[in-house]
From TrEMBL:
Reactions accelerated catalytically: L-methionyl-[protein] + [thioredoxin]-disulfide + H2O = L-methionyl-(R)-S-oxide-[protein] + [thioredoxin]-dithiol
GO cellular component: cytoplasm
Protein known as: Peptide methionine sulfoxide reductase MsrB
Cofactor (UniProt): Zn(2+)
Name of encoding gene: msrB
Native organism taxonomy: Bacteria, Pseudomonadati, Pseudomonadota, Gammaproteobacteria, Alteromonadales
Length: 129
């Protein structure tokens, strides 16, 4: 999904644009989905593709929604990020290249991964079951 900068600005709030299109980070402990405990799907705020399952969400205490795995749809891509003097792995939406956050190797088993995601890059579709 390719849109111009102006089209993204029209679709997204200022904060959503800053985070998803300019690789920003929301302040810790401020995201609307941080404490969400409902069952459902976490989807890309920009294109709506499914990224994470609620069953994989856990409280990492880091200040951002955290997931132990991406959804079975495998819509998350990985990119080396050497910005800010750090070596990290950035996670982006495979369909629209939206910046989501970063993945770390300090999560719970069995994956050992912690997908640390900005709430501003996600929407939540609550399960009807």
């Amino acid at each position: 999904m390719k849109l111009t900068e102006q089209e993204w600005r029209q679709r997204l709030s200022d904060e959503e644009f800053r985070v998803t299109r300019q690789k920003g980070t929301e302040r810790p402990f401020t995201g609307e989905l941080l404490n969400n405990e409902a069952l459902g799907d976490y989807v890309c705020r920009c294109c709506g593709e499914k990224l994470f399952d609620a069953e994989d969400k856990f409280d990492a205490g880091c200040g951002w929604p955290s997931f132990s795995a991406q959804s079975a749809e495998k819509n998350v891509e990985f990119h080396q990020d050497n910005s800010h003097g750090m070596q990290r792995v950035e996670i982006v939406c495979k369909h629209c290249d939206a910046h989501l956050g970063h993945v770390f190797n300090d999560g719970p088993q069995p994956t050992g991964e912690r997908f640390c995601v900005n709430s501003a890059s996600l929407s939540f579709n609550k399960s009807t079951e």
